[in-house]
Amino acid sequence: MPDRFDLPAGFRWGVATAAYQIEGAVAEDGRGPSVWDTFVARPGAVRDGHTGAVACDHYHRYPEDIALMKGLGLDGYRFSISWPRVLPTGAGAVNPAGLAFYDRLVDALLDAGITPLPTLFHWDLPQALEDRGGWLDRDTAYRFADYTAVVADRLGDRVPAWITLNEPFVHTVFGYALGTHAPGRALMFEALPAAHHQLLAHGLAAAVLHERGLDVMLSNNLTPVEPATPAPADLAAAAAYDALHNRLFTDPVLLGRYPDLSALGVPDDIYGAVRPGDLDLVHTPGLDGLGVNFYNPTRIAAPTDPGLLPFDLVDIPDVPHTAFGWPVVPDALRQLLVHLHELYGKSLPPLTITENGCSVEESTDPDHPRIDYLSAHLDALARAAAEGVDIRGYYTWSLLDNFEWAEGYHQRFGLVHVDFDTQRRTPRASYAWYRDLITAYRGRNER
Ligand code: BGC
Ligand code: BGC
Q1: 167 carries an active-site annotation
Q2: What are the extents of the domains in the chain?
Q3: What's the CA dihedral at 134, 139, 142, 143 to 10 degrees?
Q4: CA of residue 222 to ligand 1 center, whole Å
Q5: Contact partners, residue 260, CB within 8 Å, separation at least 6
Q6: Per the CB 3.0–4.6 Å rule, which of 22, 124, 172, 444 could disulfide with 58?
Q7: What is the pLDDT of residues 302-353, one digit of tens each?
Q8: Nearest CA to ligand 1 atom 9
Q9: How far does the centroid of ligand 2 lie from the alpha carbon of residue 196, in Å?
Q10: How many angstroms does the Cα of residue 297 sit away from the middle of ligand 1?
Q11: Homologous superfamily in CATH for domain 4-445
């Protein structure tokens, strides 16, 4: 059986982070407020009232963090750019100090021999744009394209490949449908115009990047969906969930059309959001790579209360669960990738795993559950590659323990432990394990 050492030649190793989760310095050097600054101030929104105001203080400590990356021997670093740091009100005047931070970051990464892979939007929308409707407002997509041009013009001489959006599914559902993430709107299916406008933003930004000769990727949170039983009602519920979580975000980009959303009761034009010609803008036939963020598979049953939702999410028993309570099923990653390969065929660009990892209890030392999780998922990746899926790289989530959204600092995903009182970084056992894996992989593949 192929294992992680058999991953294809030229495979790229990395780690991933996001701006609001690590940077801190939310009111420094002219950064404008984002929807997350507003949301964390809402009583009860985040566990124990934690906020990203300081986070990992990466804004000041990035040289130390790049030294940690260099110690791993990484090929690439996936980070996100804070839109309100660059454009404090989302549009109009550029904040030179904000752009200068990413300029320094990129140069320091290149000095360390690490290729920067920026994500342009990882959920921290400028509050000024939210005040005008956020992603429910079509105009936000056009502002995103303008912002993309500003950043690409500054960094494009040194940054070859870009990710437009992070996980429009999670942002739409948690941020606009359920309200458990910023901006905290609970619109249920009427949140879906926010999905369309993000996809439109992706398409417009992809054109901006391609015009400048830059490579474009999109990172989606994808999950293989399994019915609880083979009963027709469970199969139908699973198909409805798959349309919502996966196909809504991949079909329009790869095929130029939306999946059938009728089982969700959503009209074809997504409540009037989809205008004639939009799908030509969203469709990105020249997409250079699809980023897959994978954490766990999803088991779906027919709804117990069909008046509420057309599906129920159910647990997968008899498998280990992470500290977050997510089921650990490594072979589901192979299944997902092989399924994408079969479903989209020639329309599927090369894949990169742009997030994968697990949270472990702080007291778990050494962090063997994380090492087990990562090694089993990398073995599953190698099996998918052996079955013909084109996979180019792997960015583990995450370098550092960080601000885990509604969970505050409670879920720890880092290869490196962070003491949030002192900002002291301590590499965990999984850090040494990942470093040794990268070294061993290179040794084998250079022979
Ligand atoms: C899902 C994960 C996802 C996370 C977003 C969870 O419910 O199982 O796959 O990444 O939500 O924070
Ligand atoms: C997000 C990350 C998050 C991770 C773990 C993904 O959904 O992109 O920002 O920290 O899952 O929940």
Answers
A1: yes
A2: 4-445
A3: -50
A4: 10
A5: 243
A6: 22
A7: 999 988 999 999 999 999 999 999 999 999 999 999 999 999 999 999 999 9
A8: 295
A9: 21
A10: 10
A11: Glycosidases (3.20.20.80)
